[in-house]
Amino acid sequence: MSNNLLIVESPAKASTINKYLGKDFQVLASYGHVRDLVPKSGAVDPDADFAMNYQLIERNKKHVDKLVKAARSAENIYLATDLDREGEAIAWHVQEILRDKKLLNGKRNVYRVVFSEITKNAVQHAVANPRRLSDNLVDAQQARRALDYLVGFNLSPLLWKKLQPRLSAGRVQTPALRLIVEREEEIERFEPQEYWTIAADLHKDGMDFQAALVRWQGDKVEQFSFTSADQAQAVQAALQAGASSGELSVAEVKKRQRRRRPPPPYITSTMQQDASRKLRYSAQRTMRLAQQLYEGITTDSGTQGLITYMRTDSVSLAGEAINALRHQIGSQFGADKVPEKPNFYATKSRNAQEAHEAIRPTNPAWTPQRLKAYLNEDQYKLYSLIWSRTMACQMIPAVMDTVTVEFAAAGNSRFRVSGSTIREPGFLSVYEEAPVGGKQTKEVRLPELDVDEAVKLLQINADQHFTEPPPRYSEASLIKTLEEYGIGRPSTYASIISVLLDREYVLLDNRRFMPTDTGRVVANFLSSHFERYVDYEFTARLEDELDAIARGEQPWLPVLREFWEGFSHQIEDIEQNVSRAQARQARDLGIDPKSGKPVSVRLGRYGPFAQIGDTDIEEEKPKFAGLLPGQKLATITLEEALALFKLPRELGTTDEDEEVVVNIGRFGPYIRYGRKFVSLPKEDDPYTVDLERALALVAAKKLADAERTIRVYEEQGIQILKGRYGPYITDGKKNLSVPKDREPESLSVDECIELLANAPEKRGRGKKAGGKKAAAKKSAVKKATGRKKTTKKKSAKKKTAKKKTAKKKTAKKKTAKKKAAGNKA
User: Who contacts 724 (Cβ-Cβ below 8 Å, separation ≥6)?
Assistant: First the structure.
């Protein structure tokens, strides 16, 4: 049995590390978090100095039992969970479980070991140099968990009462939602402005290029210098007339060299952003792949972690890593690509956590091509990105030759064109950053141009443009903005996005976030009534305080007390003083011309809906209609809302005098003819479909029904039909397959009646035969039987106890007699 037990979070990590340590070590996984707050009120008690009530996570109980069993026979226990605050908290929880089991009574040593890469040297070095658990990091994570609980467990029930069931709010997710909603509102308010640009098409030495007008009659040309077609075309005509020779003269040539430094190595947020822009990976997918690369990949030479820890906001690299990178660059790309001194980078994040390394390959010599056979396609792409960026960060800058040329035009006007060529690619030969916004800047090459040289003018163009609204957030731009505001941490960006999508507060439309009506109402409700707690600066300031706790500069309880004092009062105030109607933020659209009643839209229990009438004023019940897919509370018009009430529409009758009605039901739009139904195809609009089209659909449905009908006994209400699994008999209540030894057409009505009589009752969806009454009866019997069994058990226990007591009394009497006999002797 091993004397040393080393505990990590994941089995993959355990499997890799197990190969690095000898037989004296047993490596086991906790499978993530082992304890969490009890999922009920009182898990954090503000009245008892924020005492936190934890319980084992049920799904991990068997893994915890295994850890406890292994700990009983170990002399040394090494807690090797991740090196961030969350990892420190998991290690603390494991230690507390072992303490509760009376295993830490001085007989066993407990150590904390951390490593930023899973390689043999790193793991063995960490085990040889352990430390104690950091109370500061544990306190910081405890404070974070308590804050998240206090916000979620108090705000979410308030949302259920005031808005809609099953809604939730979070300390960090709500400011992120607010960002998305505010951007959408900004887009909706946006009014495009017209502007015109004027450019000259030029030609020299077989090269065509374009120069933009930058000065007109001595004045600088701004974006809105020309705002109409008449104005732009007048300027175009004047410039064309002034260049009657068909040439423009070079007035000025500026040449210079520009050096472009390589970007720093990846931190969590920049890796997620780059993977989103270049690989179209979601933040969650990127982190899942990075975790796999970190925990270890099996190759011919064994299992090895390929990258360092992926949750970090530090851009620093270890000295050994820098030396290895410089050596690899020299051998693979040439000594001239290695700078004289290493490149160092400063962390830009306003709330950088405890100093970790940046994300880098554990061994630069493992090139992506060398590892391709051992990685799946997704792993290979992400590893290539990380490897390239890390190599680039320690290479020489790129050198660009830039040239700016101005051409003189009539009326003291100037055209300008800029071009650039790469003189020395430097780090660009390995890696180039993805452009923000998806617009790639192209290298513009120009012919050799000299001052006073005449260049052929092909034509002068005037082009119309309109300003565009700000773009919706992509995953990359949202993470970048959250980071700039100081909201969230490397370990939370992916989960923030995941929660917003899972709760259906936002949708991804063409890889851009668009808030749903529910998301908007929640964000606006919280922004209106909890302004301080969804404020970007407040959220970032709270993150600062958590960082200060982690550094040991501030105790954690005062932070919680200050937060809870104001927050709890705000909850009570809103609960008492804000009505459901106010919370749901109804939007008045106008008056219904037919009834004269107000028309409004709002969020209801089952989603957004339109309403004609007012529940507070009128005795008559208002009319309701759900919004159609694509319609929004914020943008729907009065006309669009009134159209929702046109259903059901009576279109006329069939040739058989069946009433034809179009409506929208639970499963979409449909046409009813008599007592039968036919679905309306997607290309047909229930609000505009006419009788002719409806009759065509009904006729097609009748034909399909006729083709599946084998025989009908109308008087008895029995049909023999063709089904998906073969012919069957039905009376609408029971379905029964036609016996295999009979032809369906040969079955008589009496035979059908007899077969159906012996068939079992048709079951409802997801319900057992017998319904609620049978279930209730079964439950009652079970309870009664349970009581009888319990009574019998109790009775048996009593009898056993009596027998034991009688035996003890008999034994005592015999002992007493023996003693007495001995004394007499």
Answer: none
pLDDT score for 238: 92
DSSP 266: B
Closest CA to 624 of 644, 639, 597: 644
The yes-or-no verdict on residue 672 having pLDDT over 80 is yes
> What pLDDT shows up at residue 665?
76
Q: Which residue among 195, 309, 380, 473 is the active-site one?
A: 309
For the chain, give the percent of residues with pLDDT over 70: 90
Give Cβ neighbours of residue 135 (< 8 Å, ≥ 6 apart): none
Q: Which amino acid is at 788?
A: K
670 is catalytic: no
**Cis peptide bond prior to 361, omega within 30° of 0:** no
Give residue 32's Cα distance to chain centre: 20
Per-residue b/e over 336-369, b at no fewer than 16 CB within 10 Å? ebbeeeebebebebebbbbebbbbbbbbbebbbe
Residue 14, sorted as left (phi over 0), alpha (psi -120 to 50) or beta, turns out to be: alpha
The per-residue pLDDT for range 203-231, each reduced to its tens digit, is: 998 899 999 999 999 999 999 999 999 99
Nearest CA among 252, 263, 293, 246 for reference residue 119: 293
Tens of pLDDT, residue by residue over 108-120, are 899 999 998 888 8
Shortest CA distance to 632 belongs to which of 514, 551, 742?
A: 514
Q: How far is CA 495 from CA 143, 271, 337, in A?
A: 19, 16, 39
pLDDT per position as a tens digit, 619-668 = 678 888 888 877 888 888 898 888 888 888 888 998 888 999 998 876 77
Instruction: Kindly report which listed range (411-420, 467-476, 614-623) carries the lowest average pLDDT score.
Output: 614-623
Residue 817 has pLDDT above 70, yes or no: no
**Cβ neighbours of residue 665 closer than 8 Å, sequence gap 6 or more:** none
- Coil vs helix vs strand at 77: strand
Quickly list H helices, 19-84.
61-72
Amino acid letter for position 427: F
> What is residue 253's DSSP assignment?
E
778 has a pLDDT exceeding 70 = no
CA separation, residue 386 to residues 274, 459, 734 (Å): 10, 47, 63
Kindly write down the DSSP assignment for every residue of 448-481, as one continuous string: ---TT-EEEEEEEEEEEEE--PPPPP-HHHHHHH
- ∠ CA 395-351-473, rounded to 5°: 80
Q: Which of 271, 178, 175, 171 minimizes the C-alpha distance to 490?
A: 271
Chain centroid, CA 698 distance in Å:
44
